[in-house]
Each structure stands twice: as C-alpha cells, then as structure tokens.
Design goal:
The chain is α/β, with parallel strands linked by helices. The chain has a single domain, classed as 3-Layer(aba) Sandwich (Rossmann fold), CATH 3.40.50.1240. Helices cover 37% and strands 11% of the residues. The protein has 13 helices and nine strands. Helix 3 crosses helix 7. It starts with 5 loop residues before the first helix and ends in a 12-residue tail after the last strand. Bound molecules: 2-acetamido-2-deoxy-beta-D-glucopyranose (6 copies). One 2-acetamido-2-deoxy-beta-D-glucopyranose binds next to loops.
C-alpha cells in the first residue's frame, strides 16, 4: 500500500490550510468526544430536558411573531409513580433491608450501597418534588420570555390530581408578577367525562393502563439478563433480578429529582448500552400503551387537538396563551392524533407499525423515543404566528408545533417557512386528522350514556373561574 499520509498526498495545499486539516483530523482521531447522560434516556422518569429532536431552531422563522399559543404539559417531577414504586423500587429497597448483613463496602461499583438510604417513602409517592416545583415555575418564566408580546394567561387548566394541580400552581408563580390574579381551574379526573377532560383516557374503557406490559417484559428480560449476571457475580447472596435492575435504573431518575444526584446513574454501574436497553424497554411499553401500537391513542388525543385548533384559529381568544396540565398519557396520544414521531413516517405502511418496535433488538433509528416526548414537565405547544416579510412566502397566518421546545414538521402540512404551515394548510390538516380519529365514545366503547366526543372545557363558563394561587400559599403538608 502506498503511503497516503497527509504530508505526502496534500503537499500541493497552502501550508495554512494543511495545518487546519491536519489539526482537525488529529482532533477527531485522537480524542473520543463520546458523551452519554443517562438522565436523557429515562423515558417517563427523565428529569425535564430539551432534546432538540429535530434540531430546528425554537426561534420563530424570520418575520414571524407568535400571536397565540396553547400548551399541554405533563406534570413536573414527582417522588415516584405508584406503579413504579410498588413494582420495582419498593421490592428492591425491602430486599436491601433484608440483606443488612451484606458488606457492600467491598463490592466494586455497588459499594455506595453500604451508606445509601432510600430517597422515597410510601407517603411521598406521587407528590411533586422541590425540583419539580422549581422546574414548573421556570417553564412559567420561559413562556414569558418566549411570548413577550402576548397577554399573560388569566386562567390555567389542570386535571385534578395533586401533582398536576401543584404543577399548575408552580407555573403560575413563575408567570405572575406581584399580583395574585392568575386562576387555576381544576378539571375532575372523572371516569365518565367522555372526551371532556384533561384525562380522557380514564373515561375510555378500551384504554388499558396495562397495555404494553407483556411486550415490555420481553425486552426487559433480554436487556437485563447480562446485567443481572454481572451483578450476581459480584454479590451472589443478593440474587439480583430483572426487576431489581429496572428499579435501580429508575432510581437514577427519581433520586436525581429528589436529591439532585444519584449514585445509580454512575456509568461504571450501568453502561450506556444498559441505559439504551432500559430506554427501549420503556419505549416499547409507551408504543403499545399510549403510542402508535394502541388502537385508541389517536381517538383519545384528537379532542384536545381539535379544541386547541379551534381556540387558535378563532377570531378573538379569551386567552393569548392557553396552558393545561395533565399526566404522562395524554401528550403522546395527542402526538399520535397529530402524526408526529411516527416510526413509519415517510414510507412503510400502517400495518407495519408494530414491526418498527421489534421485541428482540433495539430499533436505534426509531422516531418514537419516550424520553424525547414525555419527560417530567414534557410539553407540547401549538402556536399561531403572524408572518410578514418572510422571503419566499406570502404574508399571513402560519401555524407551528413544538415538543419540548423543538419545532416539529407536520405530516402533509409544510407550506410555510421553517416547520410552519399556512392557515389553509393547517385547517385542512386538522380536518384530515379529525376525519381519521373522530368518534371517541364509539372507539372507546363507553359504557355510560352521557358521553361526549368533544372537549369543551376551555369555553365552558359553567366551570367557573378557578382558584387564585398566591405567592406563598404553600400548604403545610407540602413544606419539607
Ligand atoms: C356524566 O355523568 C356523570 C355523573 O353524573 C358526570 O360525572 C360526568 O361528568 C358526565 N359526563 C359528561 C360528559 O357530561
Ligand atoms: C433468585 O430469585 C429468583 C426470582 O425471584 C428465584 O426464582 C430464585 O429461586 C432465586 N435464587 C436464589 C438462589 O435464591
Ligand atoms: C404513520 O406513517 C405511515 C406512513 O406514512 C402512515 O401510513 C400512517 O397513517 C401514520 N400513522 C398515523 C397515526 O398518522
Ligand atoms: C399493534 O399491536 C397491538 C397490540 O397487540 C394491536 O392492538 C394493534 O392492532 C397492532 N397494530 C397494528 C396496526 O397492527
Ligand atoms: C371539532 O371541532 C369542530 C369545530 O368546533 C366541532 O364542530 C367538532 O364537533 C369537533 N370534533 C371533535 C371530534 O372534537
Ligand atoms: C368569572 O369572572 C368573570 C370576569 O371577571 C365574571 O364576570 C364572572 O361572573 C365570574 N364567574 C364566576 C362563576 O365567578
């Protein structure tokens, strides 16, 4: 082989350029710049982050100004979801207590367990953490920065659970100036509300909270097998199980949002491949539970999309910024109704959708990544923009969607600058999506006779004006 070293093959280049080339080559060859943060791969347990997926700029396109916006937010960080706690975390913590005799201090990568105490008690489950309250308040401040010309909301809507209600209150505290004037309207999490609540999946009998568990457990067993084998070689007495490993990895997320950091996130304990296995396991579960692998997702998500589109398209809105809080289930169902993060997008057919999430190996190039969709405080925004002097496009009204601040291209609606879509295009898009996914009650097989397919909370005056928040109105049970 003839030598093709830079000094011989690039002799004819000016010396300056040669230096730059050689320099940048050696930089990429000599140093690994691989970075991995497990907190960005923890699905529903991921602390809030903005994955820039896709990396389009969150700024509005040149010449465009937001004139109205609507946000659907998952509640902020909590101590632990009751299912996660009971299924994975509590059994691991009890097992630790039953193995008090084990001297962890001598065991590599697990030695921290000798001084570790559980960050969660049974009583704290489901409550918002301090980090959660701060992050929700921060989102309030972010909205005021993002929309300096819009009127602040006079009302914020939330489903009635404590963690969603407190998230709404915290956001209001971050949004309000001194006055105590933004009201929080609580929408009861009824099982008979039809589509008219912020938790419509609860009134949908065809939705099952357990959907996806069977498929999830297939990949859970696969990715944890080598990990349990490795940990059991270190501490055979403990007999680590798949569920222990899954719970320990969840603790990385929960302990981080409770204490600010967690030894379970250490990459010497669980490698990047281990975390990617955890993330894929969660993505399989969400795919079948609230994603494209569930027959009802789009039907449950559509009423929010349709109601929101009406609020944004209308002439005069009561609010410039509509903000609502819900649980992790609703935003992904709205995302299905909208056709975003579709693994089959740009080809592939509907029938192949489950094939895009194989149970025996990771689809690394999937669009459906729960960490990017529903971290704590995950948020979905639809914006109405006014654009003028945008080269190459007519002046007028355009619409844009952001997920955790990343602009999302809409399927079949891309006739505006950047990821935006014209008013006509957006109206047609909403009609098309409504045609596909209308019929909540029928699809859900509702078993009560007063159901409705329409979400009307934003315009229903009978719901009243809600409750003021107050800067320091923190109930005692909430002070830790
Ligand atoms: C149906 O009736 C139940 C019980 O009165 C009520 O809680 C629920 O909100 C009603 N549903 C609708 C869609 O009005
Ligand atoms: C380890 O745990 C598994 C699952 O709980 C159980 O089936 C097995 O018998 C245990 N092995 C030992 C050696 O205790
Ligand atoms: C996902 O994309 C495929 C291929 O474009 C399309 O056939 C399917 O309808 C999409 N699914 C939804 C729910 O939009
Ligand atoms: C995907 O799998 C789920 C669960 O088995 C099933 O209900 C659904 O119909 C499947 N989707 C398609 C498009 O085959
Ligand atoms: C969608 O909104 C339109 C306009 O308000 C309304 O007439 C229709 O009933 C809504 N459909 C659904 C399924 O929400
Ligand atoms: C809600 O506020 C509006 C405007 O301040 C007021 O006119 C209305 O009476 C209030 N409604 C209730 C139910 O308090």
């Amino acid at each position: 082989m003839p030598s093709m070293g830079p000094s011989r093959s690039l002799q004819w280049l000016p010396t300056g350029l040669l230096f730059i080339l050689a320099h940048s080559c050696s930089a990429t060859l000599l140093y690994s710049n691989y970075k991995f943060n497990p907190l960005e791969h923890l699905g529903g347990v991921a602390p809030y982050f903005e994955p820039q997926d896709p990396p389009a700029s969150p700024s509005t396109p040149q010449g465009c100004t937001p004139v109205r916006a609507a946000y659907l937010n998952r509640h902020a960080a909590i101590y632990a979801n009751d299912f996660d706690y009971e299924e994975y975390i509590e059994p691991f913590i009890s097992k630790l207590e039953n193995h008090k005799g084990l001297d962890w201090s001598k065991i590599p990568t697990l030695n921290f367990l000798s001084g570790w105490t559980a960050p969660i008690t049974e009583a704290e489950q489901e409550l918002l953490t301090r980090v959660g309250r701060v992050e929700a308040a921060q989102l309030g401040a972010t909205l005021s920065f993002r929309y300096p010309n819009l009127r602040l909301p006079t009302h914020v809507w939330t489903s009635s659970a404590e963690r969603t209600y407190k998230s709404a209150q915290s956001l209001v505290r971050g949004l309000e100036t001194d006055d105590n004037w933004i009201r929080v309207i609580s929408i009861y999490e009824s099982e008979k509300a039809g589509a008219n609540s912020l938790t419509p999946y609860k009134s949908c009998p065809a939705y099952s909270g357990a959907a996806g568990s069977d498929q999830q457990s297939v990949y859970l067993n696969k990715f944890t097998a080598p990990i349990t084998a490795r940990l059991n070689a270190l501490a055979p007495e403990f007999n680590f199980t798949s569920n222990d490993v899954y719970g320990m990895m969840e603790l990385c997320g929960y302990e981080s949002v409770i204490r600010g950091s967690s030894p379970f996130c250490d990459l010497d304990l669980f490698s990047p491949d281990d975390w990617l296995g955890w993330e894929y396991t969660a993505d399989i579960q969400y795919h079948y539970n609230v994603g494209y692998g569930s027959e009802v997702s789009g039907f449950v998500g559509l009423p929010w999309l349709n109601a929101t589109a009406n609020l944004l398209l209308g002439d005069e809105g009561d609010e410039d910024i509509y903000v609502s809080f819900t649980h992790r289930e609703l935003p992904p169902m709205v995302i299905v109704a909208m056709g975003l993060f579709n693994n089959s997008g740009f080809g592939g057919g509907e029938s192949a959708i489950n094939d895009t999430m194989p149970l025996d190996r990771i689809n690394y190039h999937r669009a459906w990544k729960s960490s990017h969709i529903l971290p704590f405080l995950g948020n979905l925004a639809v914006e109405r923009l006014h654009c003028k002097g945008t080269y190459g496009y007519d002046d007028g009204e355009y619409y844009r969607v952001l997920v955790n601040s990343a602009p999302q291209p809409l399927p079949d609606c891309a006739d505006g600058p950047g990821t935006t879509c014209s008013r006509n295009g957006f109206e047609r898009y909403i009609r098309d999506r409504t045609d596909i996914f209308q019929g909540f009650s029928e699809k859900c097989g509702v078993d009560y006779d007063n159901s409705t397919d329409v979400l009307s909370i934003y315009t229903d005056l009978e719901l009243g004006n809600g409750t003021l928040v107050g800067k320091r109105n923190v109930p005692l049970s909430y002070c830790r």
